[in-house]
Amino acid sequence: MHAAIYVRVSTDEQVQHGFSLAEQKETCRARATALKVSTIKEFTDEGISGTTLDRLGLTQLRKAVNCGEVDTLILRDPDRLSRKLAHQLLLSEEFEKAGVKLEFIDFAWQDTPEGRLFYSIRGAIAEFEREKIRDRMVRGKMQKARQGGLPMGFYAYGYTHNLEKGDIIINEDEAAVVRKIFNLFIYKDTGINGVAKWLNKEEVPTKKGRFKWHRQVVRQILRNPVYKGEWHYKDIIIPVPSIIENETWYKAREKLDKARRLWAGNPQNKYLLSGIITCPDCGNTMNGICPNWWGEKVRCYTCRKNCQGAKNTGCQPQKMLPAEPIEKAVWKQVCSWLQNPDTIIEKIMHMSHEGNSLQKELQMIQKHLADVDKGQETIMGALSSGLIELDDKIKNNLEQLKRRKERLKQREEKLTSNLQIMHKTAEKEVYLKNITRELLSQLDTLDFIEKKSLVRILISQVVISGGNVREGKKSNNINITIIAKLPGTKNMS
C-alpha cells in the first residue's frame, strides 16, 4: 500500500488553533504506520490559505494521484484539503475516482449517502467559520488601529517596521533621501520629474533596492502625510515618527496643488487634441511640446515620453508632428458634422428608439441568468446530497454554465449602460436640438476649453501617420484618421 500525507497551515490557523505542520505530520505518520503502508509520500503547503486550489503541495499531490502513485491519502481533517465546500467535493471526487481511499484523523468518513451529506454539512460549517474568522480579523485590525497600534504591515520609504516590538523606526539613510526630495521640490524649484531624474542619476536605491525612480513615486512621497507623522488607516490616523516638519509638508502640498491648477486651467501652450491623438507606430498617446527651431517656437505633438520611469518611451528617433495643420483639419471636420444639427439629433434619437428592443433583450438576458443560477444551484445541491457524482460530464456542465454566466453578465452590463444613456437622451430631445443650433451659430466664437470639450464629445480617437518634423522641416505628408463617437457619423481619413 502506497500512502500520501497532505498537511497545510495558514498563519492565522497556526496561531489560533496550534495546527503546526510538525504536529500534523506526526499524527498522519502514526496513522500510516497503523495501516501498515509500504511507502509514505509527504506533500506540504505552509502559510497558504485553504480558499484557493493554486497550491504547490496540493498540485503535486494531485499529479501523484493521477499517475497512480497513491493508494491512500491521510489528512488531519477535510479542512486541510480546502476551506470551500465546492473545492472539498471536487477534490474528494477526484481522489476517489482515481481509486484513492481517504483517511481523516479527526473525521469519520463513510462513503454512503449519509456520510456524504455529513461531509458536505461539515464543509459548509468550515466555510462559514472562515468568514467569521475574516470578520473578526477586520474588526480586530480596526480596534488595534483605534488604540494606536499597527493593524497591518508598514512599508513606507524612510521607515522600518520593527516586527518584534511592533513599532515604527526611522531608517536614517532613507529618511535623508526623503528630506532631499522635499528640499529639491520646495526650495530648489525642481519639478517632480526633475527630482526623479536626480535620484536616478545619483543611483539612489528604492525601497526594493532598485535604481529606477518614477515621477509618480516621487509625487506619492510628497503627498504622503506619513512623513509629518500621520499614518492614515481607513478613517483612523495613527501617529508615527515624523521625518519632516508640518510646515515643510504643507509647503510641498501647496506647491503640488498650485502646479496642478496652473497646468489644468492655464497651460502655457494649448493643444486641442492632447490625450486623444495616437501614434500608430509605437501605440503611445501623443502630447504637446513646443521646441525652439531657429529662434522660433513651434507647437508640435510627440509620442516621446521623457518622464522618469516611463514604460514606453515612444518612437526612436523622436517623432514630432506640427500641431497647427492637424488641429485645423480636425476642427474643420467637427464643424462639418455640426452643419446640419437635425441630422445629428436624428442619429442620437435613433439610439433612443432602439431602447424598446434593448429593454426586451435585457429582460431576456436576466431570465437566462436566473436559469443559469438555478442550474448551478441544482447541480451543487445534488452533489452535496450525494444524489450524483462529480464525473467529467458534470464538470463540463458546471464549466459551461460558468462561461455562459460570464458572457451574459457582460452583455447585461453593456445593455444597462446603453439604456441609461438612451433614457437620458430621449428626455432631452428638444433641448438637444436647440442647444445644437445655438452651438452652430457660435462655433467661431468658442474659446479653447469649449472647443476642446466639443471635440471630445464627438471624437474618440485621432490617429496620425507620416508628417514627421525635424528641425522645422516636414519629411512627408500627414495622414489623419478621425474615429467618431456618434453612431452613423462617418470617420474621416
Q: Which parts are unreliable, with pLDDT below 50 for 5 consecutive residues or more?
A: 487-491
**Helical content, roughly?**
40-55%
Q: Tell me the structural class.
A: alpha/beta
Strand order of the largest sheet: 2-1-3-4
**Biggest β-sheet strands, sense, barrel:** 4 strands, parallel
Distance between the amino and carboxyl termini: 74 Å
Q: How many separate domains make up the residues?
A: 3
Radius of gyration: 32 Å
* Beta strands, count: 18
Strand residue content: 15-25%
If helices are DSSP runs of H or I spanning 4 or more residues, what is the number of helices? 15
Let me know the average pLDDT: 76
Task: Briefly summarize what is shown.
With 493 residues, this protein is an alpha/beta fold.
Walk me through what this model shows.
- It is a single chain.
- This protein has 493 residues and is α/β, with parallel strands linked by helices.
- The protein folds into three domains: 2-142, Resolvase, N-terminal catalytic domain (Rossmann fold); 159-265, Alpha-Beta Complex (Hect, E3 ligase catalytic domain fold); 267-493, no CATH class.
- The chain has helices at residues 11-17, 21-34, 56-66, 85-97, 113-146, 172-186, 192-201, 215-223, 246-265, 323-337, 341-353, 355-385, 392-426, 429-441, 448-458; strands at residues 2-9, 39-46, 72-75, 101-104, 159-162, 167-170, 230-233, 236-239, 277-278, 287-289, 292-293, 296-297, 300-302, 320-322, 459-466, 469-470, 473-474, 478-484.
- It has a four-stranded parallel beta sheet, with helices on both faces. A three-stranded mixed beta sheet has the order 9-15-18.
- α4 runs antiparallel to α5 (113-146), α11 runs antiparallel to α14 (429-441) and α12 (355-385) packs antiparallel against α13 (392-426).
